[in-house]
Amino acid sequence: MIDQYAVFGNPISHSKSPTIHRLFAEQLQQRLEYSAHLSDVDRFEQDIQHFFAQGGKGTNVTLPFKEMAWKMAERLSEAAQLAGAANTLWMQDNLLHADNTDGVGLVNDLLNNCGATLKGRHLVVLGAGGAVRGVIKPLLDSGCASIVIANRTFAKAKQLADIFSELAQPGVSVDACEFAALSPSPRVDIVINGTSASIQGDVPPVPEGVVSAHTLCYDMMYSNTQTAFCRWARSQGAERVFDGLGMLVEQAAESFSIWRGVKPDTAPVIELLRQSLSHQ
Ligand code: ATR
Q1: Which among 16, 11, 28, 10 has a CA at the least distance from the CA of 256?
Q2: Is residue 66 annotated as a catalytic residue, yes or no?
């Protein structure tokens, strides 16, 4: 039987994961099948158990099941532990293992595809939900000088800042604030939008002046047209503006590498997806 992989989510029909993993498999001449499955909160655990009982090799998990996958896992990677959510599952020694590759996917996209430098840089991360929780530690590990987490609900930003400032290297700060308290000084090198505001076409109310020409702006969401955040960033004069399509492919490459032991070349896959998105 050909090795079976899958993604579980709800909704799932829009998922690009089957295409991405098919392209990786072709590139690396790996024989595998990757399918997309619609699940449901009442059924998710059973669906995962059934998939592995049938001999399935690994799954990705997307919204809204990442926390459920995390709870089901019998072994968590450090990244998954800290994220409180898992996007990659596999069986090893008869135990369900989980990792979260979203954060490393973001960092790899910034470094390898966006030409960003993270070492010594001052970052602002917008949002304090599940998506942001998954990326703070990998951003800290990349050597940045500071992270300010800004959120509509201050208490949630503060909670994350408290958790992650404990894990930061000496001299590296992780602070929390409301959007209105964001300020261009000290310098802001990179702004990452991890809110779900783009889904409704909204942009977090970041004060004028925080983003300028030299600020790299990154939206963890992507779309076939510019996201609302990317449009806003350009209107503020930012010259380097990226959406999260690269992050999607990079997190998939990390999952693929966990499962198959080989790491795909992401650039041609990002390029192909970008082309197909522009025709939608
Ligand atoms: P996800 O898993 O995508 O992170 P989430 O955990 O529900 O989803 O978190 C959504 C994040 O987007 C939160 O930080 C939320 O702010 P609150 O904590 O104040 O709810 C933020 N968010 C959602 N819609 C927003 C909007 N229109 N403007 C600003 N922030 C928004």
Answers
A1: 28
A2: yes
